[in-house]
Amino acid sequence: MLFSALVAALGATVAIAASTPYVPGKAFDRFFTIWLENQDYDRVIKNSYMKGLVKEGILLSNYIAQTHPSQPNYIASIAGDYFGLNHDDVIHIPENITTVVDLLDSRGISWKGYFEGIPGPGYMNAASTAKDGSGWDYVSKHNPFVSFNSISFNGTRLANIQSFADFDDDLKKNELPQFAHMSPNMMNDGHNTTLEYAAVCTDTYVRSLLKDEEFMKNTLLLVTYDESETYSQPNKIVSILLGGAIPKNKKGTTDETFYTHYSILSTLQNNWELPNLGRYDVGANVFDIVAQKTGYKNHHPSSVAPLNNSLSYAGALNNLPDKWKAYPTPNMQLIGAGGKGIERTTKLNWVTREKDTTPYDGTGQVFDGGNGISDLNMPFYKAQAPAPNITYPPHYVVGGKNSAGRLRGFGGRWGVFGWGVLGVWVVCVF
Ligand SMILES: *[C@@H]1O[C@H](CO)[C@@H](O)[C@H](O)[C@H]1NC(C)=O
Ligand SMILES: *[C@@H]1O[C@H](CO)[C@@H](O)[C@H](O)[C@H]1NC(C)=O
Ligand SMILES: *[C@@H]1O[C@H](CO)[C@@H](O)[C@H](O)[C@H]1NC(C)=O
Ligand SMILES: *[C@@H]1O[C@H](CO)[C@@H](O)[C@H](O)[C@H]1NC(C)=O
Ligand SMILES: *[C@@H]1O[C@H](CO)[C@@H](O)[C@H](O)[C@H]1NC(C)=O
């Protein structure tokens, strides 16, 4: 009796949830992203299966991951910073650090995380052998959500962390959320296997989605690697935009705009007029296919030429004692790609710190932890302020041998400030 009452109650809840209308976006109504593991751009781009997928969508040919190893890249994609993280161990990020979930909540946009092989909703352990029959690994380092206390301390949110089997159910029932991050298990994402193995799995999986009319409905699907494989090379990865939101005439094209995982956040903001997190999400380029529809102006950051993105900069999650630094205060004066200011909870959490300096300046400048010898691109802190107007010339080359680009990159107003900080840093270290 009790059980049937519960089922009835659940049924009622589901019915309400299902009837909640989608919040329409300017360029898509649904954004899904599927994450693969650890491959260099130059190898992926030669794989026949991945080449086949590129023909169905848009290749993002200038997409740079944030750092190594895996976990910080996942964290960055939903929080707008990786807070110095330089390892894959279990982490707990304080409740006052907000994420994409807070942004989506602000407009009532539904979201979920789907993780292949996760033993149950909201599972919090570091890893598990799947109980869904595949016998392969689920790992929390490939699940950005569970590391944030602002998600894991909240039962409603935790319940949104589900499995690939739950995804199948949601698709069948026509109850997909409007935003989802999906991570295959350690075999299918290529972590424990090979580029070829994961490419075959991805091709099969993604093609089945591309054939599904319900899934395709005004959906933008980003298939991306988390990071490159070769740490000594700049961290360039293959990312592909697919789905029903891609017009026919864009299929098989290449977009050379500079992107990072922060572009996911700025694209969501731009599409749904969302507020921002006051971190590196502000200033990150919006996927061009969306920017074209909204009239948003992308720009090349000035710091791209010497960019390496192989080592993590200092921060609260860095496990090297000399690289610890407190969580930075968000810049509460930034306007993001959604045309809105900082998200309400984020502001409430940090409102007493309006006088703090911050590394987030809304320019889209990219920072890294250097090359182990020197660091031309470490974050620098300054007073919170609106983003300056950006006038950087285009055509910066990642990991550049392009000395003209490098010189011009450091010639501007912010570049001068950068050298000042660098000077101090060099004195401290050497
Ligand atoms: C995958 O690799 C990890 C080590 O990175 C190992 O612990 C795990 O057992 C492997 N899983 C499978 C299914 O091979
Ligand atoms: C818990 O999550 C729900 C759904 O995201 C949200 O509406 C609510 O404000 C959260 N509660 C707290 C205390 O953060
Ligand atoms: C945010 O939380 C951390 C960890 O609890 C704390 O050190 C920091 O002071 C908090 N920030 C604010 C503005 O309260
Ligand atoms: C990038 O940083 C890595 C350190 O992880 C270093 O091995 C490599 O030489 C650097 N590359 C360049 C071009 O500086
Ligand atoms: C940016 O430029 C616009 C007009 O070109 C101007 O109104 C605005 O004040 C400028 N903002 C800053 C922060 O310089």
Automatic annotation (TrEMBL):
RNA-binding among keywords: no
SUPFAM superfamilies linked: Alkaline phosphatase-like
Keywords, in A-Z order: Hydrolase, Signal
InterPro entries assigned to the protein according to its UniProt record, in alphabetical order: Alkaline_phosphatase_core_sf (IPR017850), Phosphoesterase (IPR007312)
Gene Ontology MF term list: hydrolase activity, acting on ester bonds
One of the protein's GO biological processes: phospholipid catabolic process
Signal peptide annotation: 1-17
PANTHER family: ACID PHOSPHATASE PHOA (PTHR31956:SF15), NON-SPECIFIC PHOSPHOLIPASE C4-RELATED (PTHR31956)
Official protein name in the record: Acid phosphatase
Species this chain originates from: Hymenoscyphus albidus
